[in-house]
Specification:
single chain, 179 residues, alpha/beta, Rossmann fold, 5 helices, 28% strand
C-alpha cells in the first residue's frame, strides 16, 4: 500500500516517515539557502533544511502487507512533486501544526483535488496551542467521516497511531449510498 504523508512546511512529515520506517529512509533533505528567500514562507527560525523531493520509508505489517510511506515536500513550489507522489497512493496522512493552520489549507485543497482519501494528524509541537477537535473540524472544513487525530511525530507509537487512523479509514467500506 502506497501512503502519502503531506502537510505544510515544517509540519513534521520527514520526522514521521523517518521514525516509522523499518529500513534506512530515503531522504532528500537539503540545506535551505538564500535562493528560497521571498519564495518559501519559512517562519521557523531554527529550521535549516527542507525536503526537496520526498522522504521514503517502508513499514512491514505482515508478510503480505507492506506500507510504502512517501513524505511530500510542503512548499507550494513543490506541489507538482506532491501531485506526482500521489499517483497510485491509496490515501494521505496530512500533518498540521496549530500555530500555522492556514498553511494547511492549500495542502488539503490539493489532496481533495487529487481525490485522495485522507486523515488529518495534528502534530503536537511544544508550546503550540491546543484547539478543540470540533473547532479544528470547523476551521479546516473537514467532513464528519474524515479522521482527525493528535500525534507527536517524534514518538514512534504516536506516529503509528496516526497512521492506523488513516489505514482504518481507507479500509472502511463506504455505505451503499456513497458508492
Amino acid at each position: 500500500m502506497k501512503i502519502m504523508v503531506a502537510g505544510h512546511f515544517g509540519a513534521g512529515k520527514s520526522t514521521l516517515v523517518h521514525g516509522l520506517s523499518q529500513i534506512p529512509p530515503v531522504s532528500t533533505e537539503e540545506v535551505m539557502t538564500s535562493a528560497g528567500v521571498g519564495i518559501d514562507h519559512t517562519p521557523l527560525p531554527t529550521k535549516s533544511t527542507t525536503t526537496v523531493a520526498m522522504d521514503f520509508g517502508r513499514l512491514h505489517l505482515s508478510n503480505d502487507l507492506v506500507l510504502y510511506l512517501f513524505g511530500a515536500p510542503g512548499q507550494a513550489r513543490f506541489f507538482p512533486v506532491l501531485e506526482d507522489l500521489a499517483v497510485g497512493a491509496l490515501g494521505a496522512l496530512v500533518l498540521t501544526d496549530t500555530r500555522r493552520l492556514a498553511d494547511t489549507y492549500p495542502i488539503l485543497q490539493l489532496i481533495e483535488d487529487l481525490n485522495l482519501s485522507y486523515a488529518v494528524a495534528v502534530n503536537r509541537f511544544d508550546g503550540a496551542p491546543v484547539i478543540d477537535d470540533q473547532r479544528l473540524r470547523q476551521v479546516m472544513d473537514l467532513a464528519d467521516d474524515t479522521p482527525l487525530v493528535a500525534c507527536d511525530a517524534r514518538e514512534r507509537s504516536s506516529s503509528r497511531d496516526a497512521l492506523i487512523a488513516l489505514v482504518s479509514h481507507l479500509l472502511t467500506p463506504l455505505p451503499e449510498a456513497a458508492r
